[in-house]
Amino acid sequence: MRFKNARRTTLFATLGLAAALTLTACGGGGDDTSGDTPSGAPSSSASAGATETGASDSGSSGGSDAGATATGSSTGTGAGSGSDGKTSICRTDELEVNAADNTTDKKEGVVTVQLKNAGGRDCSINGYAGVDLKAADGSTLSVERNGEPVHPAVLKNGDSAAFNITFPYNNSGGSGVRLTDILVTPPNETKYVRVAWPAGTLPVTDGSSSGKLQIGPATRVG
Question: How far apart are the C-alpha atoms of 114 and 222, rounded to whole Å?
Protein backbone atom coordinates (compact mmCIF):
# COMPACT_ATOMS: atom_id res chain seq x y z
CA MET A 1 0.00 0.00 0.00
CA ARG A 2 2.80 2.44 0.83
CA PHE A 3 4.43 1.70 -2.56
CA LYS A 4 1.20 2.35 -4.48
CA ASN A 5 0.68 5.70 -2.70
CA ALA A 6 4.20 6.80 -3.54
CA ARG A 7 3.68 6.02 -7.26
CA ARG A 8 0.39 7.94 -7.28
CA THR A 9 2.02 11.03 -5.66
CA THR A 10 4.84 11.00 -8.21
CA LEU A 11 2.34 10.72 -11.12
CA PHE A 12 0.28 13.69 -9.92
CA ALA A 13 3.40 15.83 -9.48
CA THR A 14 4.55 14.97 -13.02
CA LEU A 15 1.14 15.84 -14.51
CA GLY A 16 1.05 19.16 -12.61
CA LEU A 17 4.50 20.16 -13.91
CA ALA A 18 3.49 19.35 -17.51
CA ALA A 19 0.31 21.41 -17.21
CA ALA A 20 2.22 24.40 -15.86
CA LEU A 21 4.73 24.25 -18.73
CA THR A 22 1.87 24.05 -21.28
CA LEU A 23 0.09 27.12 -19.84
CA THR A 24 3.32 29.16 -19.84
CA ALA A 25 4.01 28.35 -23.51
CA CYS A 26 0.44 29.23 -24.66
CA GLY A 27 -0.06 32.34 -22.53
CA GLY A 28 2.96 34.32 -23.82
CA GLY A 29 3.42 35.99 -20.45
CA GLY A 30 -0.32 36.44 -19.86
CA ASP A 31 -0.98 39.24 -22.49
CA ASP A 32 -4.12 38.40 -24.49
CA THR A 33 -4.30 40.38 -27.78
CA SER A 34 -6.92 38.24 -29.46
CA GLY A 35 -9.44 41.12 -29.45
CA ASP A 36 -7.18 43.89 -30.83
CA THR A 37 -8.21 45.72 -34.03
CA PRO A 38 -5.53 45.77 -36.75
CA SER A 39 -3.88 49.18 -37.05
CA GLY A 40 -4.69 49.26 -40.76
CA ALA A 41 -8.44 48.67 -40.34
CA PRO A 42 -10.48 51.22 -42.31
CA SER A 43 -12.56 53.83 -40.54
CA SER A 44 -15.70 55.51 -41.85
CA SER A 45 -17.40 58.85 -41.38
CA ALA A 46 -20.93 59.96 -42.19
CA SER A 47 -22.68 63.29 -42.58
CA ALA A 48 -25.58 64.08 -40.30
CA GLY A 49 -28.00 64.78 -43.15
CA ALA A 50 -28.62 67.34 -45.84
CA THR A 51 -27.34 70.77 -44.89
CA GLU A 52 -26.73 73.91 -46.85
CA THR A 53 -23.51 75.49 -47.92
CA GLY A 54 -24.40 78.61 -49.76
CA ALA A 55 -23.42 81.50 -51.88
CA SER A 56 -24.57 85.07 -51.76
CA ASP A 57 -27.41 86.15 -54.01
CA SER A 58 -24.88 87.19 -56.63
CA GLY A 59 -24.74 83.59 -57.80
CA SER A 60 -21.22 82.79 -56.56
CA SER A 61 -20.57 79.98 -54.11
CA GLY A 62 -17.74 81.71 -52.29
CA GLY A 63 -19.28 81.62 -48.80
CA SER A 64 -21.30 79.27 -46.66
CA ASP A 65 -24.50 79.87 -44.74
CA ALA A 66 -24.43 79.79 -40.96
CA GLY A 67 -24.93 76.31 -39.58
CA ALA A 68 -23.60 74.48 -42.63
CA THR A 69 -21.97 71.20 -41.74
CA ALA A 70 -19.24 69.55 -43.78
CA THR A 71 -19.96 66.11 -45.14
CA GLY A 72 -17.76 63.13 -44.35
CA SER A 73 -14.56 62.74 -46.36
CA SER A 74 -13.07 59.58 -47.79
CA THR A 75 -9.92 57.97 -46.45
CA GLY A 76 -7.63 57.71 -49.46
CA THR A 77 -4.53 55.84 -50.51
CA GLY A 78 -3.52 58.76 -52.74
CA ALA A 79 -4.67 62.18 -53.87
CA GLY A 80 -8.32 61.93 -54.80
CA SER A 81 -8.50 58.17 -54.35
CA GLY A 82 -10.64 56.07 -52.05
CA SER A 83 -9.49 52.97 -50.21
CA ASP A 84 -10.36 50.87 -53.27
CA GLY A 85 -8.08 52.90 -55.52
CA LYS A 86 -10.93 54.66 -57.34
CA THR A 87 -11.28 58.43 -57.51
CA SER A 88 -13.70 59.58 -54.82
CA ILE A 89 -16.69 61.81 -55.55
CA CYS A 90 -16.60 65.58 -55.80
CA ARG A 91 -17.80 66.89 -52.45
CA THR A 92 -20.07 69.90 -52.18
CA ASP A 93 -17.47 71.86 -50.21
CA GLU A 94 -14.94 71.33 -53.02
CA LEU A 95 -17.12 72.74 -55.78
CA GLU A 96 -17.67 76.33 -56.90
CA VAL A 97 -21.22 76.53 -58.22
CA ASN A 98 -22.45 79.24 -60.59
CA ALA A 99 -25.49 79.69 -62.83
CA ALA A 100 -25.92 81.65 -66.08
CA ASP A 101 -28.85 82.37 -68.39
CA ASN A 102 -28.26 80.77 -71.80
CA THR A 103 -31.75 81.28 -73.23
CA THR A 104 -31.63 81.75 -77.00
CA ASP A 105 -35.30 81.81 -78.01
CA LYS A 106 -38.68 82.75 -76.59
CA LYS A 107 -40.05 79.24 -76.40
CA GLU A 108 -37.80 77.42 -73.96
CA GLY A 109 -35.52 79.01 -71.39
CA VAL A 110 -32.12 77.54 -70.48
CA VAL A 111 -30.05 78.12 -67.35
CA THR A 112 -26.63 76.45 -67.25
CA VAL A 113 -25.25 75.48 -63.84
CA GLN A 114 -21.48 75.01 -63.65
CA LEU A 115 -19.72 72.90 -61.02
CA LYS A 116 -16.00 73.77 -60.84
CA ASN A 117 -13.57 71.54 -58.93
CA ALA A 118 -11.72 73.83 -56.52
CA GLY A 119 -10.77 71.17 -53.97
CA GLY A 120 -7.13 70.77 -54.96
CA ARG A 121 -7.49 67.09 -55.90
CA ASP A 122 -8.97 64.90 -58.62
CA CYS A 123 -12.60 63.93 -57.98
CA SER A 124 -15.30 62.09 -59.89
CA ILE A 125 -18.73 63.31 -60.92
CA ASN A 126 -21.40 60.93 -62.07
CA GLY A 127 -25.13 61.42 -62.52
CA TYR A 128 -27.78 64.06 -62.00
CA ALA A 129 -27.66 66.85 -59.47
CA GLY A 130 -30.64 67.48 -57.24
CA VAL A 131 -32.30 70.81 -58.07
CA ASP A 132 -35.10 72.80 -56.44
CA LEU A 133 -36.16 76.29 -57.43
CA LYS A 134 -37.26 78.83 -54.84
CA ALA A 135 -39.96 81.30 -55.83
CA ALA A 136 -40.43 84.81 -54.50
CA ASP A 137 -43.62 83.76 -52.71
CA GLY A 138 -41.64 81.21 -50.68
CA SER A 139 -42.79 78.12 -52.57
CA THR A 140 -40.40 75.48 -53.91
CA LEU A 141 -40.52 73.89 -57.36
CA SER A 142 -38.82 70.54 -57.89
CA VAL A 143 -37.07 69.94 -61.20
CA GLU A 144 -37.33 66.59 -62.97
CA ARG A 145 -34.59 64.70 -64.81
CA ASN A 146 -34.84 64.71 -68.59
CA GLY A 147 -33.70 61.09 -68.95
CA GLU A 148 -30.52 61.73 -70.95
CA PRO A 149 -27.70 59.18 -70.43
CA VAL A 150 -25.12 59.78 -67.72
CA HIS A 151 -21.44 60.21 -68.62
CA PRO A 152 -19.13 59.70 -65.60
CA ALA A 153 -16.06 61.93 -65.57
CA VAL A 154 -13.01 62.72 -63.46
CA LEU A 155 -12.46 66.41 -62.77
CA LYS A 156 -8.92 67.56 -62.13
CA ASN A 157 -8.43 70.61 -59.97
CA GLY A 158 -9.81 73.57 -61.95
CA ASP A 159 -11.92 71.44 -64.31
CA SER A 160 -15.69 71.88 -64.53
CA ALA A 161 -18.85 69.95 -65.21
CA ALA A 162 -22.18 71.54 -66.12
CA PHE A 163 -25.84 70.78 -66.65
CA ASN A 164 -28.80 72.68 -68.09
CA ILE A 165 -32.09 73.56 -66.46
CA THR A 166 -34.80 74.02 -69.10
CA PHE A 167 -37.97 75.93 -68.27
CA PRO A 168 -41.00 77.35 -70.11
CA TYR A 169 -40.43 80.88 -71.35
CA ASN A 170 -42.94 83.43 -70.11
CA ASN A 171 -44.74 84.71 -73.21
CA SER A 172 -47.94 85.51 -71.35
CA GLY A 173 -47.33 89.24 -71.11
CA GLY A 174 -47.88 89.10 -67.35
CA SER A 175 -45.37 89.29 -64.53
CA GLY A 176 -45.28 85.50 -64.20
CA VAL A 177 -43.74 83.48 -61.40
CA ARG A 178 -40.54 85.12 -60.20
CA LEU A 179 -37.81 82.73 -59.10
CA THR A 180 -35.11 83.81 -56.65
CA ASP A 181 -32.74 80.90 -56.00
CA ILE A 182 -31.55 77.51 -57.22
CA LEU A 183 -30.78 74.86 -54.60
CA VAL A 184 -28.17 72.57 -56.16
CA THR A 185 -27.13 69.27 -54.58
CA PRO A 186 -24.16 67.81 -56.53
CA PRO A 187 -24.49 64.19 -57.73
CA ASN A 188 -24.21 61.61 -54.92
CA GLU A 189 -24.03 64.33 -52.24
CA THR A 190 -26.45 65.42 -49.49
CA LYS A 191 -25.42 69.05 -48.95
CA TYR A 192 -26.78 71.70 -51.29
CA VAL A 193 -25.55 75.06 -52.53
CA ARG A 194 -27.81 78.08 -52.98
CA VAL A 195 -27.17 80.27 -56.03
CA ALA A 196 -29.23 83.11 -57.49
CA TRP A 197 -31.67 82.41 -60.33
CA PRO A 198 -30.21 84.35 -63.28
CA ALA A 199 -33.08 84.19 -65.78
CA GLY A 200 -36.62 85.40 -66.31
CA THR A 201 -39.99 84.42 -64.89
CA LEU A 202 -42.13 81.35 -65.50
CA PRO A 203 -45.63 81.59 -66.95
CA VAL A 204 -48.26 81.56 -64.23
CA THR A 205 -50.09 78.69 -65.95
CA ASP A 206 -46.94 76.55 -65.94
CA GLY A 207 -45.22 77.84 -62.83
CA SER A 208 -46.92 75.36 -60.52
CA SER A 209 -46.06 72.39 -62.72
CA SER A 210 -42.65 70.72 -62.56
CA GLY A 211 -43.37 68.74 -65.74
CA LYS A 212 -41.82 71.43 -67.97
CA LEU A 213 -38.96 72.12 -65.58
CA GLN A 214 -36.17 69.66 -66.38
CA ILE A 215 -32.45 69.11 -65.82
CA GLY A 216 -29.83 67.13 -67.71
CA PRO A 217 -27.00 65.07 -66.18
CA ALA A 218 -23.79 66.74 -65.08
CA THR A 219 -21.28 66.49 -67.94
CA ARG A 220 -17.59 67.44 -68.02
CA VAL A 221 -16.94 70.71 -69.82
CA GLY A 222 -14.13 70.72 -72.38
Answer: 12
- With a threshold of 0.85, does the pTM exceed it? no
Any idea how long the chain is?
222
CA distance 32 to 55: 55
Angle, alpha carbons 108-112-113 (nearest 5°): 140
Best CA proximity match to 73, nearest among 192, 189, 194: 189
DSSP 81-148: B-TTSSBPBPPGGGEEEEEEE---SSSEEEEEEEEEE-SSS-EEE-SPPEEEEEETTS-EEE-EE--P
The C-alpha torsion from 55 through 59 and 62 to 63, rounded to 10°, is -20
> In one letter, which amino acid is 15?
L
Q: pLDDT band for position 84 (50/70/90)?
A: low
Please give the full DSSP string across 129-195, using - where no structure is assigned: PEEEEEETTS-EEE-EE--PPP--EEEPTT-EEEEEEEEE---SSS--BPEEEEEEE-TT-S-BEEE
User: Cα–Cα distance between 145 and 217 in angstroms, integer?
Assistant: 8
Q: Spell out a b/e string for 131-157, using b for 16 or more CB atoms within 10 Å of the CB, else e.
A: bbbbbeeeeebebebeeeeeeebbbee
Q: Is the distance from CB of 147 to CB of 156 less than 8 angstroms?
A: no
Tally the C-alpha atoms within 13 A of residue 161's C-alpha that lie toward its C-beta.
28
Beta partners for residue 155, in sequence order: 123
Q: Residue 16, exposed/middle/buried by CB under 10 A (0-12, 13-18, 19+)?
A: exposed
Is residue 157's pLDDT more than 60?
Answer: yes
